[in-house]
Amino acid sequence: MSITPWHYHSQTQLLLPLLLIALAAATRLVVLGAAAEKQGQPITLPGCPDKCGDISLPFPFGLAAMPGCFLEGFEVSCNDSFDPPRAFLAYPGLSQSVTRYSYIYSGAANITGRVRDMNITVVVAPFELIGVSSAKGEVQVYGAVASVCSTNADNFVKTRQATYLVDTLSINGEGPSPFLLSMTRNVLVGIGWDVDAMVSSSIGGKVGNSYFLTCESDLRGNLHDATNGSCSRRGCCQPSFPEAAPLDRFSVNVDGPYNNTLWETNPCSYAMVVESSWYNFSTPDLYGDELQRKILPRGVPYVLDFAIRSGSCPPEGQPSPVCASADSYCANATRGPGFVCKCLPHYEGNPYITGGCKDIDECEHPDLYPCSGTCINKPGGYDCPCQRGEKGDGKTGTCADKFPLLLTVVVGAIGGISFISIVTLVILLRKEKIKMREFYEKNGGPTLQKAKIIKLFKKEELKPILKSRNFIGKGGFGEVYKGRLLDIGLVAVKKPISGSVLENNQFANEVIIQSQVIHKNIVRLIGCCLEVDIPMLVYEFLSRGSLDDILHNNNVAPLDLDVRLHIAAEVADALAYMHSKAHTRILHGDVKPANILLDDDFMPKISDFGISRLIVRDRQHTNTVIGDRSYMDPEYLRSGLLTEKSDVYSFGVVILELISRQQATHLDGSGLVDNFLAAHKENRVAALFDNAFTRPRDLELLGNLAGIAIQCLEDDVNQRPSMVEVAERILAIYQSHITLI
Ligand SMILES: *[C@@H]1O[C@H](CO)[C@@H](O)[C@H](O)[C@H]1NC(C)=O
Ligand SMILES: *[C@@H]1O[C@H](CO)[C@@H](O)[C@H](O)[C@H]1NC(C)=O
Ligand SMILES: *[C@@H]1O[C@H](CO)[C@@H](O)[C@H](O)[C@H]1NC(C)=O
Ligand SMILES: *[C@@H]1O[C@H](CO)[C@@H](O)[C@H](O)[C@H]1NC(C)=O
Ligand SMILES: *[C@@H]1O[C@H](CO)[C@@H](O)[C@H](O)[C@H]1NC(C)=O
Ligand SMILES: *[C@@H]1O[C@H](CO)[C@@H](O)[C@H](O)[C@H]1NC(C)=O
Ligand SMILES: *[C@@H]1O[C@H](CO)[C@@H](O)[C@H](O)[C@H]1NC(C)=O
């Protein structure tokens, strides 16, 4: 078997059909809009159908087959071949996809194994509607559940071999679609003995602007820690979404368990984005297909906000043509651009159609509209005079005929308190609005919304960039050009100079995997061009070039110690993430300063994961060693087996370069690594530190870093710390350093 650049931890076991089977047993699906849009009241434009099967379609929604019955973006296709018919959002390009990785894993119980025979299938489907509320500006849709299961448990125990299926859900849209994930109505839920659940996104498609919500749950093998109804990191985790920039696309990932002994008991791990009230954890969900029984046949319900994304509300006092009901008003969307229509207070119904908002008869709802006097409904409110002979306000329940002075005081106090609360509320709401607006602006807004996460470029689009005046470098992969792309900005285009196209769809598989890796310290793959012999890759462009240039170019001022520490901490964090977080564990295999790029603020980003390595693989087979020998784990050179510890070794060399500002060379006996190891034995490593630093405190800190590097460079692979440990230790050093400054 050939060496793959990524290796995988073993994950779960037990035979389980992954299809979302079985009927709902214990779900509490409260369909949106069922109550608000009451029978009898029109909810559509005249002459337009108002239903698809059991699902009401209030305007601006309408059947795609009936032009004029919907606002652009709100078209719904109704499929009559089902009974009852089913409704799907038909906005072009809006879809959810489920990526299924199927692979054979093999390895001993206690080590990272290998993956072979990976098949990836992507199923793209439109969103199926469960309900629509035009009054709330929400739709409820079915979403898939991400899961990781093993399909041949018995065989696994005997042969250490298993096939895994991993479903990853992502929402794709060709913006600006009307729909964004609701941040208030959904939660992320992870379920399993030892599960990592994650929602990731690049906000507004903006490069490098990533959003993560993660949760971990670990039972540590003790089932008694799990409690029914409690989703508190024991078998179940459930963070709510922090208020953040709008998510118009996201993916849900799941990973776990890591403890191999759990293979026997852990059937599957799950992650889902689901309506917050829908899921109630119960311990049987940790076994067998209990959870699947609860999942509706088509997935789990979650909520999307909608708004009219183009245009905005007219100036104060002028009616909005879209908010057609006389008793409605126009309001800015709470998230994202655009606006929504709402009924005025004390009205309900569909604000988007003429006469849609109807007066609420408050007297029929005494629970919501209290009245201790005589209730009289009137348009836009109600009166509640006290009985004859009484004084006070029936609405606040203060009708009384005695103690008028006390009454006044009470009423005054209540009035005062309500006034203060209202003022406070208004201030808070306004602050929140401004903050959300700022977040939105800061994050680049809708200008980049059009870009998909991975873009397929046409050859002509990249052609202008591939000119000699744009040439910025040459690496193991090929030539790199700098250019500017419309809507995207500066990019680095990597063009392979030799190699060959990979067999079957390995390249496509790798692109899918890579596109799902979003981390602030990993150079983002924007897209690729497949219209050429060997695919060209388009990455985000980083202005300050590579760490190699900066450390070893004498024209550049030496980096401050805190910048170097920060770089080490961030790079370690990214490598630890790649090794331990993503469900497809990606090894780098060629960690070196030339592959660490820096942006304007000296934020480091690792480049050249995965894909580039696959492309040059052909050449590696014939002669050259994979990666750069100066940074290469000697154990890897001996055994040819790339492990996580190989990256740890290479990272150790990077630390040495950071603290010495000397370039590692691959000369047996006198290279940077050998010098350091020799100096370490003789207790004189400080002699090798960059002489830009002389303060005792700085030297002590460099000594600590050197200590970590020396451990990373241990000959015995098992003595080397894991990347997670390295990241934690460097972070601790960094934090103690910056608190001292
Ligand atoms: C309706 O659903 C069936 C079954 O999934 C599918 O074959 C058919 O193409 C759908 N029809 C439309 C109009 O989408
Ligand atoms: C991948 O697909 C091939 C061809 O369909 C099949 O023979 C093989 O068993 C699949 N491998 C896995 C791990 O599903
Ligand atoms: C894994 O277990 C085997 C014996 O089962 C042992 O020889 C080997 O050293 C272990 N490897 C690690 C990395 O712990
Ligand atoms: C793995 O789980 C078993 C119980 O299932 C427990 O005894 C063991 O300590 C766990 N191992 C680790 C490394 O957490
Ligand atoms: C949780 O509830 C289920 C029934 O819904 C029951 O079978 C199970 O034993 C309960 N678990 C605990 C820890 O109480
Ligand atoms: C969730 O389940 C627990 C235990 O089964 C129960 O006490 C609780 O009321 C349930 N919560 C909801 C919202 O159904
Ligand atoms: C609504 O958004 C527009 C710009 O889109 C802005 O000018 C206006 O002030 C906003 N209105 C409120 C009430 O925030």
TrEMBL record:
<keyword id="KW-0325">Glycoprotein</keyword>
<protein>
    <recommendedName>
        <fullName>Protein kinase domain-containing protein</fullName>
    </recommendedName>
</protein>
<dbReference type="GO" id="GO:0030247">
    <property type="term" value="F:polysaccharide binding"/>
</dbReference>
<feature type="binding site">
    <location>
        <position position="495"/>
    </location>
    <ligand>
        <name>ATP</name>
    </ligand>
</feature>
<dbReference type="InterPro" id="IPR017441">
    <property type="entry name" value="Protein_kinase_ATP_BS"/>
</dbReference>
<keyword id="KW-1133">Transmembrane helix</keyword>
<keyword id="KW-0812">Transmembrane</keyword>
<keyword id="KW-0418">Kinase</keyword>
<dbReference type="InterPro" id="IPR001881">
    <property type="entry name" value="EGF-like_Ca-bd_dom"/>
</dbReference>
<dbReference type="InterPro" id="IPR018097">
    <property type="entry name" value="EGF_Ca-bd_CS"/>
</dbReference>
<dbReference type="InterPro" id="IPR000742">
    <property type="entry name" value="EGF"/>
</dbReference>
<dbReference type="InterPro" id="IPR000719">
    <property type="entry name" value="Prot_kinase_dom"/>
</dbReference>
<dbReference type="GO" id="GO:0005509">
    <property type="term" value="F:calcium ion binding"/>
</dbReference>
<keyword id="KW-1003">Cell membrane</keyword>
<keyword id="KW-0547">Nucleotide-binding</keyword>
<dbReference type="Pfam" id="PF13947">
    <property type="entry name" value="GUB_WAK_bind"/>
</dbReference>
<dbReference type="InterPro" id="IPR045274">
    <property type="entry name" value="WAK-like"/>
</dbReference>
<dbReference type="GO" id="GO:0004674">
    <property type="term" value="F:protein serine/threonine kinase activity"/>
</dbReference>
<feature type="domain" description="Protein kinase">
    <location>
        <begin position="466"/>
        <end position="740"/>
    </location>
</feature>
<keyword id="KW-0067">ATP-binding</keyword>
<dbReference type="GO" id="GO:0005524">
    <property type="term" value="F:ATP binding"/>
</dbReference>
<keyword id="KW-0732">Signal</keyword>
<dbReference type="Pfam" id="PF00069">
    <property type="entry name" value="Pkinase"/>
</dbReference>
<dbReference type="InterPro" id="IPR008271">
    <property type="entry name" value="Ser/Thr_kinase_AS"/>
</dbReference>
<keyword id="KW-1015">Disulfide bond</keyword>
<dbReference type="GO" id="GO:0005886">
    <property type="term" value="C:plasma membrane"/>
</dbReference>
<feature type="signal peptide">
    <location>
        <begin position="1"/>
        <end position="26"/>
    </location>
</feature>
<feature type="transmembrane region" description="Helical">
    <location>
        <begin position="405"/>
        <end position="429"/>
    </location>
</feature>
<keyword id="KW-0723">Serine/threonine-protein kinase</keyword>
<dbReference type="GO" id="GO:0007166">
    <property type="term" value="P:cell surface receptor signaling pathway"/>
</dbReference>
<keyword id="KW-0472">Membrane</keyword>
<keyword id="KW-0808">Transferase</keyword>
<dbReference type="InterPro" id="IPR025287">
    <property type="entry name" value="WAK_GUB"/>
</dbReference>
<dbReference type="InterPro" id="IPR011009">
    <property type="entry name" value="Kinase-like_dom_sf"/>
</dbReference>
